[in-house]
Amino acid sequence: MPNIKSILTDTQTLPLNQIEELLSLLEEALVLGSQVGQVYEEVKEFRFAKGKVCPHCHSELVSRNGKYNGKQRYICKDCRKTFTDFTNSATYRSKKSLDKWLKYAKCMIMGLSIRKSAKIVGINIATSFFGDIKYLIV
Questions:
Q1: DSSP reduced 3-state for 67
Q2: What is the three-class DSSP state of 82?
Q3: Distance separating alpha carbons of residues 44 and 41, to the nearest angstrom
């Protein structure tokens, strides 16, 4: 198992372009990782700013209903529909993770083309153009 010292020694032998790529990956992991957590917390706060309310019928008679994939589920006692903190949010119907969409948005802000942005993020061009990004824009 490599330790920090051996990793630092190995990185000193890398060419400049690979060092820049490594730094970019580390920055992305540190910055985007914290942004994802922050966005999740903000969505939760916004969703229940006025108390727990069903997104389907707007009833306030809501109770917790277990967890699914690490996300808290709720059930409305009036309409009996279930939902999460992220129901009807920008990424609700997306099969891609929030960190991928944040990375994609960063590429678009930098002025990269749809094709190049999709390649960097690792998603299909059709997904990036016609797919779930429309939910992020709304």
A1: strand
A2: strand
A3: 5
